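2024-03-11 09:14:02 DEBUG pipeline.ingest accepted 1 chain
2024-03-11 09:14:02 DEBUG pipeline.ingest length=432
2024-03-11 09:14:03 DEBUG pipeline.predict start
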Amino acid sequence: MNVRLIRMAFALGLLLLFQTAAGAQIPKPDPLATLLKYVDQTAGTDADQAVRIALASNDELAAMKLETESSTRMIGQAKQRARPSVGFESRQQVGGSRNHSMVMGTIPLELGGRKSSRIAVAETMAALDRALYEEKERMLAAEVRTKFGRALAKALKLKLTEDTLLFVIESYELVKANVTEGDTAPLEENMLLVEVNRLRSMREKDEGAVRIAMLELKNLMGIGPEAPLLLKGDFEGLVEPLPPLRVATETALAKRPDLEALRAAIEVGRAKIDQYASDSGIDAALNLGYERMTDDAFRGGDHMVIFGVRITLPYGNRNRDAIEASTLDKQAAEQRLEFGELVVRREVASAFARYEFAVKALEIFRVGVAGEAFRNLEVVRQTYEFGSASLIDYLSEQGRYLDYQAGLIDAQLEVYEAKVSILKAGNEAGLK
């Protein structure tokens, strides 16, 4: 008996809840106002500006810039001559009157190209650090552009969902009025209410996706999650002619900083080989000095000027292990460069192919899908109003139309990302 009463109370509660939901006024969204929360074509930040902000505020990039400046300063240090040394010596005879004083200076000569090889190592290390810094710029710029496009696409999808939700709410209110007048069956009102709530749920999910995409973009740009950020731009004018594939490939092979870093690594290995070879040879230093010897018993003394040369002789294996290690490093960099050039050729060709087919897919979708879907929806809507089609047919067609429009945004985003991949492959994504 208690179980039966509980079931009846639960069913009555569900009925009251449904009646309340059906009778409540559904708030209408404002698609334009929602879009303006994320996109502002006047005061917003476009993709180029987002890249500039990211390059200026990224902490890792700033650290790499300091390392580049440090290695550049080392070139000046390497150009300095080896420092001379000065020594003083005094000798006093124990229990006697003789004493001996001497001042001696030593000037290293750095024979065998020691200085020039040291400068070459510093210069190649600076070139390597600079190429690594530019490579980080290239990767960061491309990632910012990609995140920017995805955030913009999600904002446009949110507006699309709100546009559809607004239209369905207005249709629901019209059907609800007809039900009140007795001209329409209550089932149609309930079906539209379900569709309204489905779109409201989709709208919340879409706005959450926009918020997350904006946070990811802010993180890349180096700004806080609470900082204001509005996007500026659209997916219009994406299709444009490209340079020949051969020209783009040659440009990428000549300009890509990752390849420049590998070439610099080869030069570092070569410079170190020369440095270790020069350090293993004979070196010399000039010795210049003054000596005075006195004897208090005779109150006299001798004054002498000292001149000499100190020779550093080759010893041990003459840096053979260090030379062989540097040779192996150089060979490894050469193999990496050969493989890197193959990767660059593949990346450029893949980016061009992706762009070509993305443009074709977008044009087919724009003309043959999105345009036709709108006309189909209008036909179904009119036949529904005339009573020739059911509400289920109309809602199904409307759902397909929403999917098609979202697909059009995805196709536009694919063309956008294909362009970003071309810029990235050709080292055009960074702002110099």
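2024-03-11 09:14:41 DEBUG pipeline.report The CA atoms of residues 230 and 346 lie 36 Å apart.
2024-03-11 09:14:41 DEBUG pipeline.predict end
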